[in-house]
Structure formats: structure tokens, C-alpha cells
Design goal:
Helix content: 25-40%
Number of strands: 9
Strand order of the largest sheet: 3-4-5-6-7-8-9
Number of domains: 2
Strand content: 25-35%
Shape: rod-shaped
Largest sheet: 7 strands, antiparallel
Distance between the termini: 158 Å
Radius of gyration: 38 Å
Number of helices: 2
Order of helices and strands: HEEEEEEEEEH
Length: about 170
């Protein structure tokens, strides 16, 4: 009897996929058991990953810039229907733009979640700060030159003012 129970337990385990994995993207949890990689633009690097669950394609990801992090995701239903297309527009590794499709391939919903990464914000702030430092530096240089010109004029006039003048003696008549 124990052998029979053990047989049924093992059979149930093998019927359900034990090697299922989960990937979380854009609010979706997608289960898969197999990944195939490929080179879609024939440049020698694998930029496409196709995820399958029970021999049905559930997700395709594309790494367009070669950094190992996908920028585009295509979520499929029943291996043939594109349900959702997602794209990362700011380089943070998370989808920002979403397109949802019906089974006829028509767009039913378009959503954009624009978020800006900390790197972009920091570079912007540093750029603004450098701009103000340069402007302040130029203003200081310009005011120094004006002060310097005024002091040179003042020196010339003071030099003339302090010049000894000989007094002429009145003529006798």
C-alpha cells in the first residue's frame, strides 16, 4: 500500500511542473519553465530571450543596447496572442510604457508611467549648479575689470593733482 501511495505522489509531482520559475515585470508575475536565447539583430550577442511555460511562449524580452537588461517585453497568451507590450524609456530596468492588445491585435489600452532615474536627476542638478557657478564667476571677473579700470584712472588724476606747481612771481611794474 505504501508503494502505491508513493507512486501516486510521484506521479502528481511529475505531472505538475516542479521546475517552474517566476519573473516579475511591470506588475505581472509570469511563470515559465524554459528560456531560449537568440541574436535577433545578428551582431553576435544574444539580445532576445523567449520564455516558455509548458511549450507555450509566454514572454519575449529584448536587450537593445547590450547592457544585459531588457528594454522591451512582449507578454503572450496561449502562445500566439500578444497581450501586452512594455518598454523601458528611462534606463531604470522597469517598464514605463504599456500597450495592451485584444485577440485581434488592436490596441485596447495605452499607459505611460514616466519616472526618471536618480542618475538623470543628479546630472541635471549638477549641470544647473555648474551653470550658476560659471555665471557667478563671470560676473566677478567683469566687476574686477571695471574696478581695475577705475583705479587706474584715479591714479592718473591723483598724480596730476599732487604735481608741484611753481608759483610765478608777480611782475613789477
Amino acid at each position: 500500500m505504501k508503494k502505491l501511495i508513493m507512486f501516486f505522489v510521484l506521479m502528481v509531482i511529475f505531472m505538475f511542473n516542479v521546475n517552474a520559475y517566476t519573473i516579475k515585470i511591470g506588475g505581472y508575475e509570469i511563470e515559465y519553465d524554459t528560456i531560449y536565447q537568440g541574436d535577433s539583430d545578428f551582431d553576435g550577442t544574444n539580445d532576445r530571450k523567449s520564455y516558455y511555460q509548458d511549450d507555450e511562449m509566454v514572454l519575449i524580452t529584448y536587450d537593445m543596447d547590450g547592457d544585459g537588461i531588457p528594454e522591451n517585453w512582449l507578454k503572450y497568451i496561449q502562445d500566439v496572442y500578444l497581450e501586452t507590450a512594455m518598454r523601458d524609456n528611462n534606463g531604470d530596468g522597469k517598464p514605463n510604457d504599456f500597450l495592451k492588445y485584444d485577440k485581434d491585435g488592436n490596441i485596447t489600452q495605452e499607459t505611460s508611467k514616466r519616472t526618471y532615474s536618480l542618475k538623470i536627476i543628479m546630472f541635471g542638478l549638477i549641470g544647473v549648479l555648474l551653470f550658476f557657478v560659471l555665471v557667478i564667476g563671470l560676473i566677478k571677473i567683469m566687476t574686477r575689470k571695471k574696478k581695475h579700470k577705475k583705479t587706474k584712472k584715479d591714479e592718473k588724476t591723483t598724480h596730476v593733482k599732487h604735481k608741484k606747481v611753481k608759483k610765478k612771481k608777480p611782475k613789477k611794474v
